[in-house]
Amino acid sequence: MLVSQKTYAVDLLSCVVFSTTKTVRERKPLRFKQHVLHTDYEKMNSKRSVCVLMCVFCFCFCCALGTFSVQELTVTPTELKDCEEQKKLCVMSSTDCRYMALDRVPRIPENFLNTSCHYLIHEDSLTCRWIQTKDVRSKTISSFIFSRVRDIFHCPSILNMYSTFNLTIKSKSVINQREQFSDVYPLFIKDIIQAPRPLITSVNVTDSSIKITWTSGKIPLNITKCKIRYKLLDTESWTETASVESQLVIEGLQAFSEFALSVSCFHGFGRWSDWSHETRVKTAESPPSAALSFSYYVDSDENAGIRWLVLLWKALDITDARGLIRGYEVSYMPIRQPSLKKTMNTTHLKAVVPVRSEEYEVSVCAYNSAGRSPYRRLTVNPSRPHDVPAVKSLWVYSDGSSLWIRWEHQFTTVNVSEFAIEWSSTTNSEHRHWERVNGSTFTVRLPGIEAQQMYIISVFPVYESLCGPPTNISADLQHGALWDLVGFGLLSVSSSSVVLRWSWKEAKPGVSVLQYRLVLNGPNETQTLTVFPDKHQHSFLRLHPNTRYSVQIHGETTDGNFTKASLAINTLLLDYDEMMRFAVPAVLLLLIFGIFSVLSRTMCREYFFPIIANPRYSPIGRWLLNPHLQGSGKICVLKLDGLILMDQQMEKSTVQVERHVSVVSDHEDEVPLKISATAEDTALWKPGSDYGENALTPSSLTDYIDLPLLPDSSGYVQTGQIPGERSSD
């Protein structure tokens, strides 16, 4: 049976899908979930159920037949031949004339699926297409056999607008010469006439419209209707519109956008023409419709006292750019000094301008050949600190065809909205690439990486109109990150902790390292840490004292791991801090206790238990307290001449009285006294006695009393008789 071209296309696609499914099934059986199929079948109506059953039948049929191919054959009047003995046949090959009775040939309709024919009146040709199942290793030759109930007088004239006939398709294998015949298809030329394929002659564009003009060729029949379809490139859906003329204006399009166009026409009967060849056209530019979104941060050199304002902005979408962006205009002006306004143009997405510690008004816009975008203005204070931290743990590794960059970002009060990645080769630093990802992305593949090139990669965290300073790293396609870990060693060790340090240098490692890991192994524990170029030391805490540990730096690659450096460490039994923790409090406690003891003894003796003078502990006191003491008969009296006791002239002197005790036969104690007085302008008085001047020996105990100062005109008397005076006796 004959089918339309549209039906043919759908059936062909179905058969292709079924054949592909069969191939997959041969490799691995398909497994379906029962509950999904059950739910789908419950939702189907009766019509869809029939379609599914037909598709399943076609699928099984195609799978049973094996492979297939799409066949197409076109015949023109000049290719038709008459059969001399068979006036009711017209053939393309004279050998087909032997089939006098076509009703007796073996027909295999299942080998000629979805047969469709159309007649092009302007070319005077008949074309048929069908799907033929066959052995993939064989090649076939096809031909048409035309037949009619009444005689055909001239075969080339059978192909005309009002002709009717029956068509049989013969297929012959080249290898085994096997012939196959299709069913008999009755053809009515008027019903299968197809309009000629249109030809697009001109296309005129503006920034929002396309004017298209086409022609349908020189044919005796007029075209009554045409339809035009168009779509944006890289999209799948088409938009169709109709026209009764040979031109159409499509409006409401995006500026500077590339479209694909094609046209199909209709005679008013028969079939629509094939779509014309696709024509690609781009609308004209218009000024950008949206303002740029930019952010900034301040970079300062404390030694030189210079501040730099770093501006970053995001490229406009193609729908907002409305053309090819040719550059950006940056203006910055001190608010207090408008006359110092400066303007610069750049083709990059970053600008660095020198500023001072005062408020600035900054504006940025994009421009193309049609005009400028709206300005984006922002007030900036370079002296105000910003709290957008830089990213950490930046690393790059290679998968052989591209570079992958990853990083970490600490969560603070500032929620980073997106990250801006900039990379450029060292040989062409002016050609910079940019990529923007949202704030929840920490791994990005960098496209357009060339071999044998070293790249400088920078990552900026962005938060609304603010951004953080960049974190930079160098890499190439062969080695990934061009940083190597060196100088691994022990910084300090205690009884419960180990501090390790290392450094980084820019180098080309032997292999592409995915990451470095620091691993500590002990008798009962293992600790692992991933290290990046922003980390130079690490402390392992809560370790066991007097225990042996091993520490290694492992490099991870796609082929496995390797050991970069290793150390063997013994923790201390007691560390200095622990010893000081016990020694210092003990010393302080003893010191405080000693001070307290001395102070408490002094206070007690002075206020609570004062010392009272006891005469018995003094020789003089014991002598005075002894009532049985007898003198030697000699009394020494101190003679004072002219002594005037005046309080104003009194000066204290010290008189030392010493006692020397000797035992006599009659048990009488002699107590010689030695009194010495010291004062200014006075001399010691050493009284003599019967024992002689040198007979006195100082006692171990001495008493001191205060006496008035004696004048020089003093003398001594004995037995109570003062010289120069008369005795009272």
TrEMBL record:
Origin: domain of life: Eukaryota
Protein name as catalogued: Fibronectin type-III domain-containing protein
Domain Fibronectin type-III: 195-286, 481-577
Matching Pfam families: fn3 (PF00041)
Membrane-spanning parts: 50-70, 579-599
Keyword Repeat annotated: yes
SMART domains with a match to the protein in the record: FN3
InterPro entries attached to this UniProt entry: ECM_Regulatory_Proteins, FN3_dom, FN3_sf, Ig-like_fold
PANTHER family in UniProt: FIBRONECTIN TYPE-III DOMAIN-CONTAINING PROTEIN, TENASCIN
UniProt keyword terms in alphabetical order: Membrane, Repeat, Transmembrane, Transmembrane helix
